[in-house]
Give the backbone structure.
Amino acid sequence: MSKILIQRISSRKTNYRFVHTLILTTILITGFLIFHPIQAEATIVSRCQVVNPTTDPIDMNTVSFKEFVKTVHIEKEIFQCVTNNGAPVIVVVSLFTELFENMRTLSTINKTAETVTCIKGYNGTISYCDSKQIPIIDEYPVRANCDPNSLRTLDIMSPIEMETIVDSEGISKTIEAEKEVFQCDFRENTPTRLLDVILFTEIFEDITSGQIIKKSVESISCLKDIQTAEVKICSTKNHL
């Protein structure tokens, strides 16, 4: 068999593989474009209302590794909503707020806020879950028209969490988190947004001497849209 014929056969095989791969890729992309928007559209909710808080919707945990320490504060709120096709659903919004710190320098490395939202049918079926990183800005306070006269807040049965950890060098960190939820931006005497305010108080101490090394008070406030059960933005400020 001549070299030219072998090259032609090899070229045809290569072209066939390329065409076959191109067809499969086109089918996969087309299927994604067809079915993905339908799934996303089916999970859009509106006309949400806040459900009374559960008995203990808040928790907090602190872990350390070498000179680094992380505190994660978790809170949950439940909404009754309606999908775009009119189906009643329950929307569970969990907000994870994390503080990353250095125990040697007693400085904050990073702060993050992330939501995990799950939509459930009234028969208990989970139809959709989504995770979203929420930006934390330094602008304070968050722009929201809350009611300063009647001080309308959601009733939280257990709003305070506290923990203490000690690192290998004998430096302890005690952190207390207190949460309040303010009802804001009223329309026809009905709130349209919630302002979640978490106040973190931290005390760093030298265990061997019993001396306080540092104290800090910091707030992280997050604004939620009640109609869509979405966390829009968070802000932070140091108060001490």
Notes: Helices lie at 3-42. The chain has two domains: 1-32, 44-238. DSSP finds one helix and twelve strands in the chain. Confidence is low (pLDDT under 50) at residues 3-9, 18-42.
